[in-house]
Amino acid sequence: MTEQDLLFSLDIGTRTVVGIVGYHDGQKFKIQAFEVEEHKERAMYDGQVHDIELVAKAVDKVRERLEKRTGLKLKRVSIAAAGRTLKTCKVFAERDTDPSSEVDSELVSSLEIEAIQQAQKEIEELNNEDDQSYFCVGYAVVNQFLNGSVIGNLSGHKAKRAGVEVLATFLPRVVVESLYAVVARAGLEVSSLTLEPIAAMNVSIYSSLRLLNLALVDIGAGTSDIALTKDGTVFAFAMASIAGDEITEKIAEVLLLDFDQAERVKICLNNKETVKYKDIMGITFEKSSAEIIKEIDSAIRTLAKEISDKIIEYNGKAPSAVFLVGGGSQIPKLSLYVAEFLQIPAERVGVRSTDIIKDVEIKSRKLSGPEFITPIGIAVTAYLNRQKDFLHVMVNGVSVKLFNSKTLTIADSLIFVGYNPRNLIGRRGSAVSFKLNGKKETVRGESGEPAVIYLNDRIAGLDKAIANGDNIIVEPAAEGKPAEVYVRDFLGEYAEKTIYLNENPLIIKPVIVINGSESNREAPIKDGDDVSIKSLEKVLELLEYLDLSYFDTEMYINGKKAELDDIIHNGDYITYEILEKKAADSLSEVAAAANFVNVTLNGKPAVLQTNKSQCLFVDVFNNIDIDIRNVKGAIAMLLNGNKANFTDVINDGDKIELHWDEK
To answer: In the structure, what pLDDT confidence band is assigned to residue 566 with cuts at 50, 70 and 90?
Structure first.
């Protein structure tokens, strides 16, 4: 067997370095040898390398011992980044959309990209990092929003505003670089890089189970790393800031032991009925495991509560089941308390040991505990992937290196290069909003053209999977043409009329006013314009147009005597005659002929005068300064609180309201 046939993997942890050498015989992955080396000093904190030289020495010792046991020179190694180094951020992205068009999958993908870029920016600002200092290793859409309200699926709906809430997880670049530096100092080359939660997932929760909403919790010494699955993928990572050391410290406090002695007592609690120990005063004790567990119960519950709260925070609810791995998973009663806090049946929280791993041959019983799930998972994941840890692709001529933690798509590459997601969706051209006879009108611009994406010279979508060496070209979306609006577009109900007045044809055109100035049918309407279009409609308006007095004129439409409120239509035959005025013999007769009516006009006392026997509503216009030909909106005419007609009779004491309604 040669070095090329073997897979060498390292789990570089906070307390120990675990090395495994194995090979695949075509049916199973067989573990040939393993070694464990403890760090002599605190060289790592919470999965992050702090002293490269010290960690490299531990790695070198593991490598040397494995080379002696296998008789082969080991040069390439598979490693994993700790889940506790991952950073997760929940963000909301929203965009105004065209309510006349349906939301499609490309718009939703564009919103997701915008949210992920926003999450990366927030994490970088929070940690005062330079641009592109994180790799996005996974994300999940928590909610979609239609006009501000949660909806199951945006696609197919029409919306004024569309939004998404995304939970995104990032791996700091410095973590990757420090692991590579450690491996290089030990004289090795990285053959593949994965994430510890993914490695543990690959051997403890198989892909067929990931359709379910599950939680995998790797409980180490300092932290508890959480991975969540649903719909066939790992969608989120989280970390509880306490783990096995919390229990060890509680034992040390209760039994008066140093940390190392307390750690040994903790290990015995799970497999011995009684435990002997000597406290710092030199006194030897023997207690039952049950008694010690009772004394540290509060610490166990605290750990379970912290883990459960983190699962709920990132999953949004209790998962269908929880699997515990890692050395801390063996803490007595921990699984029961996790089930209690999550309010799920106790049998749905279980500890995974290496005996559940399929297609892996483990000869040594020392590798049977849950603390070896992740080291074995790193080795198996390296075999399953058998590919580089990074993909190199070109995006619009720029070389991009993507962390190969999942099935990568075109969208992932655009996120990494910081491509503006708003350039993916063609925006509608600018609209024109204006007032027409006091009413707001809006004419929308033309629809834009979406971006065109090419993958190796073929048109592709954002969700298309990419491979090493792919070439991606994105032609940005084109904005639609702005709206062009003309007066003629709104002349339908204000068309010119031809009437026959005393047998003579008369063409009456609508009066067009824009922003107070007379205009014409071909004039453009701009954003914010105030447009008035008035067409002659009633007999009273025709009399005003002809400058005839309604007191002295009788008018007939198509042979029938017309009232002042009658509507004039195109093609009407209209005749009129001027009535002869009866000469008054004296001023006293003129005064006697006048009729005076006392009313309240727009809240103020007024006296209306008419020469007719009755005062009609139309007489109001002879007593106030108002030009009904200069339209400023719809005219509001009220008589005693009710809508009035021109021919309504007005009596003493009536209340009249008359004004332009410009709304």
So the answer is: confident
Chain centroid, CA 167 distance in Å:
9
Contact between 331 and 293 (Cβ < 8 Å) = no
User: What kind and span of H or E run contains 59?
Assistant: helix 52-70
When the candidates are 3.60.15.10, 3.10.20.30, 3.40.50.1950, 3.90.76.10, the CATH number that belongs to 485-578 is 3.10.20.30
Q: How far apart are CA 536 and CA 497, in angstroms?
A: 8
Q: What is the pLDDT of residues 425-439, one digit of tens each?
A: 888 888 999 999 889
Q: How far apart are CA 114 and CA 487, in angstroms?
A: 40
CA 138, 142, 146, 152: dihedral to nearest 10 degrees? 110
- Does pTM surpass 0.90? no
Residue 588: band (very low, low, confident or very high) from pLDDT cuts 50, 70, 90: very low
- Cα dist. 366→16, 68, 354, 655 in Å? 15, 19, 10, 102
pLDDT single digits (tens) 613-627: 678 887 787 767 665
Residues contacting 460, CB < 8 A, separation 6+: 410, 453, 454
The SS3 assignment for 330 reads helix
Which has the closest alpha carbon to 170: 236, 240, 79?
236
What is the per-residue pLDDT for 591?
46
Fold of 387-483: Ubiquitin-like (UB roll) (3.10.20)
Q: In angstroms, rounded to a whole number, what is the distance separating the alpha carbons of residues 520 and 49? A: 77
List the one residue out of 147, 172, 155 whose CA is nearest residue 112. 155
Average pLDDT score over residue span 59-63: 94
For the chain, helix, strand, coil in percent to 5 are 30, 35, 35
DSSP 408: -
Beta bridge partners of 639: 642, 656
CA 483 – CA 461 distance, rounded (Å)? 30
Superfamily of domain 207-357: ATPase, nucleotide binding domain (3.30.420.40)
Q: Which fold would CATH assign to domain 587-661?
A: Ubiquitin-like (UB roll) (3.10.20)
Radius of gyration for the alpha carbons in the chain, expressed in angstroms and rounded: 42
Report d(CA 421, CA 417) in Å as an integer: 11
CA distance 73 to 64: 9
> Where exactly are the structural domains of the chain?
207-357, 387-483, 485-578, 587-661
User: What average pLDDT does this structure show over 138-153?
Assistant: 84
